[in-house]
Structures are given as C-alpha cells and as structure tokens.
Amino acid sequence: MIWNEAIECMRRDEMRKLQEMRFKRTVERVYHNCEPYRKRMQEAGIAPDDFRGIDDVAKLPFTSKKDLRDYYPFRLLSVPMSEIVRLQASSGTTGKPIVVGYTRRDLGIWSEVGARCFTAYGLGKQDVVQVSYGYGLFTGGLGAHCAVETIGGAVLPMSSGNTEKQIMLMHDFGAVGLACTPSYALYLADAMKDSGIPREEFKLKVGAFGAEPWTEAMRRELQEKLGIKAYDLYGLTEIIGPGVGHECACQNGTHLCEDHFYPEIVDPTTGEPLPAGQTGELVFSTISKEGMPLLRFRTRDLTSLNYEPCLCGRTSVRMNRILGRCDDMLIIRGVNVFPSQLEAVICEIDELEPHYFIVVDRVNNLDTFEVQVEVKAEFYSDEMNRMLDLRRRIIHRLQSVIGLSPDVKLVEPRSIERSQGKAKRVLDKRKFN
Amino acid sequence: MLIKQLSVFLENKKGRFTEVARLLGEAGVNMSAFTVSESSDFGILRIIVSDTDRAVDVLRSNLYAVSLTDVVCLYCPNQPGALARAMEIITKAGIFIEYMYAFAQVDSAHVIIRPDDTKRCVEVLKANQLTLLAASDLYKL
Q: How far apart are CA A50 and CA A24, in angstroms?
C-alpha cells in the first residue's frame, strides 16, 4: 500500500523539479531568517540567487552536529518562537541536548512522512499499533504516535519499559503493529515466550524498528522470534525524527522521503559529492521545514543510495543499509554514546586512571558494551569485595550519565594502550551489513 | 607474629599466573603458600614468599599492582578438631575473618588467616596457648 502515490511514485524528473523549487525556498528562508546560515553563506560568497538548482547544492555550506550544539538552544530556528509549537531533543556529548523546534506545518510534514512509513508496512485504519519507543524529548515515541494517528490506526502509546504490561496489552488489545527499537523488540520477543501465552493468540504481524542500526541477521531473528515482518523505520532528530525513510514490502532498501529531505552522499573526509551508488557519508537538507530547516546536515552515517525504481512501484530513492559511522559517536542499544562522556565520568572517579577502552560488539543480536578501566596503584585492594564494590560504583556512575549500563572490566595497571597522538579508545566489532 | 602477604591483581587471562611464577622464580624468590580469589574477569593472587621486598620490587617493576597485607599464620596439629578449637576461640572473641587458606604436611597444618582485627586476633590466639608462626618460620617450611 502507498500513502501518497503522487509523490512516492513520481517521475524522477518531476521529483527533481519539486525538490529544486522547495530547495530554493529553503535557501531563501534560512538566508533571511537564520543568522548563522546567513553569515556562513556570506562568508562563502553565496547569495540565495546563486542557488539556481540541484546542481548548485555543493555550493551550500554544511551543517554539523557541532553546529547544533554551538547554536544551542534556538539560534538555528528560522522562525520566531511564536511560530514553534513543539520542541524535541536528543542526547549530546556534554549533557546539553540537541534541540529541534517544529512549526505546526512541520508537525504536519512529520505526520505525512510517518504515514507513508506505516502504510508501506501494510498497516491501516483497522489496526491497533503499539508504540513502544520512549515518549518524551526523544522523537521516537511521539513521531510514531502521530504517524499511526494519521493513517487512522489505533495508537497504543506504551512508551518503553514495563514489559509485562506491554505483553498483556499487546495480547488483550490485539496489536497488529509494534514500533520500537530492534533490541527492545528482541527483549519483548523473549517476554512473549515467557508469558506462556500461545503465539496464535497474538495478532502481531508487523514491526517498525529503528533508532539504532540493525542488520539483516537481526531482521531474520526478529521475524522468526516474533513471527512478523520486520521493517526499517529510519529517522534522525535533527532532520525531523522517525519518518525520514522506511522500507516497503520488498525489504530491499529504505525509501527516503526525498520530497522533504534531500539526500546526498559525500566523501566523509573532503566533503566532495560522490557519484550515485558510491558509498560515503549521508547528508540531508530539509527542503520543506519551516521551524529549523537544515542545509546539508552531515549525518556521519556511511551508506549508499539507489535511484532504481523499486518493485513496490515507488520511484523514491532508496538508502542501502548503514555500514557504520564516520565519527566517534556510538549508538549502543539505541542510545547515543560519546567516548568523551565516558571520559568525563572516568576522570571524576578518584580510584581510576584517566585511561579507558571501549569494546562494543553484538552477541546474539544484542549490543554488548564493555568499558575497560585501570585502577590507580594505591587503590588496588586485597579484598575481593572492595574491588567488586568499586566496580559496581563505576557502573552506577557511568549509567547515570550515559543512560546505559556498561560491563566494566577492571584491568591490570598500564595494560590499556597509551597513545601519543589521537588515542584509539573504541573497538566496535559490530558489522552492519 | 604478623606475616606480610603479597596481593597481586591479575586479569583473568591465559598465562597471567604463569608469568608471576616465572618472574619470582627468576628472581630466586620462593613461594611458601598462595591462593587465588577470582571474580568473572579478574582475580587476586595472595602469596607468601621467602623474600617479600624482592618479590614486591620484581612484580612492581613489571607493572603488576601489588599490595602488602598483614596476615596471621596459625599452627595446628594435623588432627580432627584442631582447627575447630582455634576457630571457636576466634569466633568467641568476635573477630571476623575476611579470608583464610591452609596447607597441611605430615603431622602439622598451617592456616593463614586474614582477620578484620589482626592485633586482637594475635592476642587472643596467644592467650589461648596456640602457636603462631613468625615470618622466618614460615619461609623455612
């Protein structure tokens, strides 16, 4: 099923015209209404008139995650606060989140793209959809919520946690769709099994999973364990939230809502645009948003784009699986983790040397997160209880800051490699392909 | 009557103890007794050696985390009930034992005890005519 056939199946040349028209308007909007963008364009010697079409995209300045932090909280807004009707935020490195403001029209766009996603998954107005993404500042919960309402489905706004109740209501209310992170879905799969309720008593058919990278192997596992079709629901807070892209019944790439979010692939080092089909860093420009339009936002995600029409009938560009990230941010169990956050905590703990090493892996499709730390010589205790207690305290401190509980491993003195230059502090063994 | 015990922090990895034993051997240090207390990813090796200072030097210069702890070494006849008697004395005195380990020979047994109050433990055991070994005695065994 296709929500907006006119757009999703539009001829490529027409799509390009639509994108050009919207992109031009966005360039004008940010130039005239957002000081950081105006300055940056002036510095680069570009006026809005110099942007004549898609071929001129490379002339425009990039936006980085750092910009969103530097202009915290509202300096990247292109409208006055009176026009903003919603604020959402995601985690950042230093405790300050990244803030996004939406106008009423932006929320309409968000609902529209969300509706395309859930329709592509085969859901409709007859279906109960359980939203088990967290509700709140995180875009996951409210994003999926409005999408389901838009297609006329019945939203079951569970948020995350309280697993027993999730299973009970999924069963009693006959939820057909489940929207959550893939790792939480796996957790729920086990809980369904533990509940003792036979699978055939559940109506669940479809999963809309996102907010963390996941693999084909994980899809197989989710589909098998839950007895459903598992689809990618792609999104970034900076761009709009979940709804930037979605898979279709073909499960062969993530269709991007490119009439609102213009994608490019660039060389992650030089920033030069790469030819279609090549792997590089994914960059998005929002071309219809009013509240906080972003020009050429660098996602740091590595992937490639496929412009071939899909067997489902859509002509929209498809994003291949994300291969990894080109900066140091780790997404572990759906949570953004920056090594610098861990560093700050570790440096505050008296008993620890300021050295650490992070090992991330995926075992049975769940992320493992190990942090190796060295105890200062004078704090090594002869008593096991004291060492275990120290480890517990470290875990607690890290958890309270990053929101995830790492497996802390106390290692021998000087066993963590010291580096003269840029320290290698992370080993991410996960394979996203 | 107190004995210096070395405690060495070791990661649970293949060959860690082997290396400690080799380093001490090369330095001509003998081990009289040892025990390992382990958790899932690290262990604490506790050793009584013939030359504490030398052992500490060798291990620290090889970057091991080594600490010194005072322990008590109790002599018991290697007979049924001998340990029970000593333990009753310690318990009655309200002394808590953090950990202990033992080794027995033909007719004698030696128990190394790490009490929460070392001084008092020594006093109580002595007052009850139990034999405690000095470091020099133990190293000769």
A: 10
Q: Strand runs (DSSP E) across A181-274, as ranges?
A: 206-209, 229-236, 241-246, 254-256, 261-266
Task: Tell me the CATH number at A234.
Answer: 3.40.50.12780
Q: What is the pLDDT of residue A421?
A: 46
Give the mutation candidate from A370, A382, A395 for the B interface (greatest B CB count, under 10 A): A382
Give the domain extent around A129: 1-327
**Chain B contact residues (CB < 8 Å to A):** 5, 7, 9-11, 37, 39, 41-42, 44, 46, 63-67, 69, 98-99, 114
Do B45 and B82 have their domain in common?
A: no
Q: Which of A384, A388, A413 sits opposite B65 (nearest CB)?
A: A413
Flag whether pLDDT at B134 surpasses 90.
Answer: no
pLDDT at B13: 87
Whether residue B7 and residue A409 make contact (CB cut-off 8 A), yes or no, is: no
pLDDT 10s digits, A250-260 = 999 999 999 99
Contacts of A375 in chain B (CB under 8 A): 9, 65
Cβ separation of B65 and A375 shorter than 8 Å? yes
Q: Residues of chain A whose pLDDT is less than 50?
A: 93, 421-422
Q: Considering only alpha carbons, which residue of chain A is nearest residue B69?
A: A382
Calculate mean pLDDT across residues B73-92: 92
- Strands (DSSP E) contained in chain B are 2-11, 31-38, 42-49, 66-77, 97-104, 108-115, 131-132
Tell whether A355 and A386 lie within a shared domain. yes
Say how far apart CA A273 and CA A244 lie, in whole Å. 21
Q: Please confirm whether the linkage preceding A73 is cis (ω < 30° from 0).
A: yes
What is this model's ipTM? 0.81
Please state which of the ranges A326-340, A377-391, B82-96, B104-118 shows the lowest mean pLDDT. A326-340
Indicate if B34 and B91 belong to the same structural domain: no
Q: Which amino acid is at A198?
A: P
DSSP run (H or E) holding A308: none
Look at residues A277, A295, A327 and tell me which one is the last residue of a structural domain. A327
Q: Do A412 and B65 touch (CB under 8 A)?
A: yes
Among the partner-chain residues B7, B11, B42, the one whose CB lies closest to the CB of A382 is B7
